[in-house]
Amino acid sequence: MPSNARNHGPYARHAMAYVLAGGRGSRLMELTDRRAKPAVYFGGKTRIIDFALSNALNSGIRRIAVATQYKAHSLISHLQRGWSFFRSERNESFDILPASQRVSEELWYLGTADAVYQNIDIIASYMPQYIVILAGDHVYKMDYEIMLCEHVETGADVTVGCIEVPRMEASAFGVMHIDENDRIIEFHEKPKDPPPMPGKPGVALASMGIYVFETKKLFELLREDAADPNSSRDFGKDIIPKLVKGGKAYAHLFGRSALRSTEEAPSYWRDVGTLDAYFQANIDLTTVTPDLDIYDHSWPIWTHSEMVAPAKFVHDEDGRRGEAITSLVSGDCIVSGGKVANSLLFTGVRVNSFTELDCAVVLPRVNIGRHARLSNVIIDRGVEIPAGLVVGEDPELDAKRFRRTDQGVCLITQPMIDAIGR
C-alpha cells in the first residue's frame, strides 16, 4: 500500500472510484486486436489503466471497481496480478466487474451509464457516500480529493473534470460552457464546431470523462435513465446534459488538481487513442525532463511488477557496442552489441548485435535480429524481428508491409512479419 505522505481530506475515505474500462480503442488498430485500450502497455512497465487506478489510490480512495467488456482477458489478468493488495478488514475493496448480463440475459453494457447501473447492488453493498466515475484509458496524474472537495463545497449534483484543449481538437470531446462560478450552463457532446471559452477564442473546455456524484443522487439518475426508452445509457449523451438543463452541474478545472513534474510544467493529460499519439507520448518519456514525471515517489504509478533480472548491455567493439542513449530500458532487457537511441524498451526485449533502433517503442518480449535498422516504430508484444529488417527508410515499402500512419510511424505485429515474403 502507498506510504506517500499527503494530507487527504475527509471525502476520499468515503468515496468509491468506478473505472470504466470496456473501451475497444479501435484507433489503435492492431494494438487492440487482442486487448482493450486500458490494457495497452505504456511507459516501460505500466498499462494505461494504471494511471487512473494509481490516482485513486494516491488520492486516498480505498474502494475501487473496474467495469470491463471488450476483449478483457489481458486487462483482467493484469488487474488480478497487480491490484490484489486491497484488504477487506481495512475497509478496502477492489472489484472487477465484467459485463455479465446480470440485468438481462440479452444485454451487455449498453453505454457508460449502463455499465454503472447494472452494478448498483454491488456499489450499494459498500455504502460509499460519493462515486468518482473515471475513464480507464487516459494518461495523467491527478488528486481526486481536490475535486471531491469542490463537489461538496458547491453542492453540485455532478462535478465534471474539464481540461482546456485547442478549440478545433475539442470535437472529439464533450464541450462545456461555464459561468464565472464554474457552473456548467451549456454542454455539447462532440460538437462539429466547438464553442470557445470566454476570452479564449482558440480554446475550448473539454470533459475528461471524470464525474463526481453523491451516490444516492447517482442511483436516482441511473434508475430514471434506465426507465427511459429513448436514452442511449451514456453519461456524456444523457446524464450530464440532463443535469446541465435541470440540475446543478459544475466544472472542475484540471489545472487545480494536476500533479506536475515541475512548478513551471504544464498540466499533463493525454488521450493516447491513436498510434501517433501513443507513440509520441511514450517517446516523450525519454527526454531529459518530460512533462509526465514517472519518477515521482510521492505519487507513484502502481502496477504489476514482474520479478525479472536487471537490464544488461554487452560487447564493446567498434560497430558492435551495446549501448542506449536518451532511452528507457526496462528490466530483463539485453542489448547485445546493438545501439538504442531515443527509444523505450519494455520488459524482456532482446536487441542483438549490429542492430540500430531510433525512436522505437518496443513492447515486452520482443526479439530483434542482427543487423536490423528500425526507426519510428511501435513493435507489438512478442514479435520476432528477422535479421536485417529495415523499417523507417522507405515509406512506400513500409506502407505495404506494416501499418504506417500519416506521420510516418509504423506499427509492427507478428502477422505482418509472417506475411513478408509470402
TrEMBL record:
Role of this protein: Involved in the biosynthesis of ADP-glucose, a building block required for the elongation reactions to produce glycogen. Catalyzes the reaction between ATP and alpha-D-glucose 1-phosphate (G1P) to produce pyrophosphate and ADP-Glc.
Protein name: Glucose-1-phosphate adenylyltransferase
Pfam family, one: Hexapep_GlmU
Source organism: Sphingomonas parva
Domain spans labelled Nucleotidyl transferase: 18-286
Any one biological process term the GO annotation gives: glycogen biosynthetic process
Keywords: ATP-binding, Carbohydrate metabolism, Glycogen biosynthesis, Glycogen metabolism, Nucleotide-binding, Nucleotidyltransferase, Transferase
Catalytic activity: alpha-D-glucose 1-phosphate + ATP + H(+) = ADP-alpha-D-glucose + diphosphate
Quaternary structure note: Homotetramer.
Listed pathway(s): Glycan biosynthesis; glycogen biosynthesis
Tree of life domain: Bacteria
